[in-house]
Design goal:
There is one protein chain. The protein is an alpha/beta fold. Helix content is 31%, strand content 18%. The protein is built from 10 helices and 10 strands. It has helices spanning 16-19, 42-55, 70-82, 107-110, 118-122, 139-146, 167-175, 194-200, 226-239, 248-260; strands at residues 11-13, 25-30, 60-66, 85-91, 101-105, 129-131, 158-162, 181-185, 210-213, 269-274.
Length: 290
């Protein structure tokens, strides 16, 4: 059930000049290198969902997202690869389909997406559909995200990741050694509301040593300013690693604030996860140095 070769992911050291030797090591797991469309953590959240849908004989995959959703793009590509019909419920109007059939809903209607029957009602005229929640936030998505743990060894004291739905954080917290701290950076205002949902899906004995930070949202989800763009360009110049405007840029900005704010001890070792999403930079591509 593979689209990509997991071996394409590498762990790349971040320049010591960038983090000022505040910790013993700071590395980046480059999941963004896995694939240009099904990049980063998207494939891990989709792979077991796709496997289940195909093996169970479903005729179509249904999922939802915004007009520029990386999740929708990744699902469309993966469904096309596996020869299963793809249906996307889209907030707004703009969307790249890649063969996905689209159902457009209003911003107001989309707010009801967490209601149990919301998606089912919209696609009730289709036969034998398997519904994947936004961001792959279901049992299969969480288990798939846990597979990212195979890249992470026990030498790291802290694992740093961006949080959208919390699916990757749940999967990794359930998979990793409980002694390893998992730090999630949420790129939206008051993102700490995700704590309750995350806690509900953690296994017994795993609801510890994790934390969310939502201070560095830059105005809200998908928002940015010149300071964040300058930060992204400086980070690339120093490390030759592109960040995305929505998730990983805010994660690394917040992490550096914490590093220079003496949040960590000098002996600690940090692994950051690059969760992909570089397609999101299309709106600012003319202002980036790569």
């Amino acid at each position: 059930m593979g689209i990509i070769d997991d071996r394409l992911a590498v762990i790349q050291p971040v320049s010591k000049f960038w983090y000022g030797n505040k910790v013993a090591a700071l590395d980046m797991l480059r999941l963004d290198l896995l694939h240009p469309v099904v990049s980063g953590n998207k494939w891990f959240k989709l792979r077991l969902n796709m496997k289940y849908a195909v093996e169970s004989g479903f005729k179509a995959i249904v999922t939802s997202g915004g007009g520029w959703s990386n999740h929708l793009a990744a699902t469309a590509f993966a469904a096309k690869h596996f020869g299963i019909r793809a249906i996307g419920i889209v907030r707004g109007e703009a969307c790249k389909a890649d063969g996905m059939e689209l159902i457009f809903v209003s911003q107001e209607d989309y707010k009801n997406r967490h209601e149990p029957q919301w998606a089912s009602t919209l696609v009730e005229h289709f036969d034998e559909v398997f519904i994947i929640p936004e961001g792959g936030a279901n049992e299969w998505g969480r288990k798939g995200a846990g597979l990212i743990g195979r890249f992470i060894n026990d030498s790291y004291t802290h694992i740093v990741l961006a949080v959208g739905t919390g699916t990757m954080l749940i999967g990794l917290r359930n998979q990793l050694d409980i002694q390893q701290q998992v730090l999630g950076f949420v790129p939206m205002k008051q993102g700490a509301y995700l704590k309750e949902n995350i806690s509900e899906h953690l296994l017994n004995g795993k609801n510890a040593n994790w934390e969310l930070f939502d201070e560095w949202h830059f105005g809200g989800f998908g928002k940015w300013n010149k300071e964040l763009l300058a930060f992204m360009n400086d980070f690339y110049t120093e490390n030759k690693m592109p960040l995305d405007i929505v998730y990983t840029s805010k994660m690394m900005y917040g992490l550096r604030e914490m590093l220079y704010g003496s949040h960590f001890s000098s002996h600690e070792r940090i692994l950051c996860i690059h969760s992909g999403g570089l397609q999101g930079n299309v709106s600012v591509k003319d202002e980036l140095v790569w």
